[in-house]
Amino acid sequence: MSDVILALLCSLLSGFQSRRLLLLENLALRHQLAVLKRQARKPRLCQADRLLWLALLRVWPNWQQALVLFQPETLIAWHRLGFRLFWRWKSRARGGRPSVERELITLMRRMWSSNPTWGSKWIQAELAKLGIQISDSTIRKYRPKNRRCRNGQNWRTFLGNHARDLIAVDFFAVPTATFRVL
Question: d(Cα 146, Cα 14) in Å, to the nearest integer?
């Protein structure tokens, strides 16, 4: 008996809703009935059913009230799944540079370490003599990170060798009244 009274009250209150909201609620309820009629046991939703509910989620503010077949959390989970699938599709590998074999990378790094004065153009020329065609930027990409300067001197050695001169240049420059520097 209480279900009948509740249904009567809901139908009376629905007269005060806007026509658009009433049509959306009607669409949602009819869709759930169609899903229930389609299957005998547990209702199963297909992808088109889920897309309809995701569209209703966007345009209908009271979508939670018309849910009978599943919980609102389920609909929100479908929405999140859609975002995950979209970003997985968006960040997929689309080709690009061909990959470089591991043996070639180790060969290039060995050439860099045994010949510290060679540049990437020189290594490219040496690899071309072996019949390996590879770009200059690829050779620079795989060079060792802890490589010293071309003359074998690193930054710490340079500062140690020239510390006295650097201090004299930085701290003992005196401008005169005629704007000359001593």
Answer: 74
| 37-85 pLDDT per residue, tens | 676 666 677 888 788 878 877 887 777 777 767 677 887 888 899 889 9
Cα–Cα nearest to 77, from 48, 60, 53, 42: 53
Count of Cβ atoms closer than 10 Å to residue 32 Cβ: 19
Cα separation, 106 vs 89, in Å, equals 33
Going from the C-alpha of 65 to that of each of 6, 33, 74, the distances in angstroms are 14, 15, 14
pTM tops 0.85:
no
Q: What does the CA dihedral 121, 126, 130, 131 come to, rounded to 10 degrees?
A: 20
3-class secondary structure, 175: strand
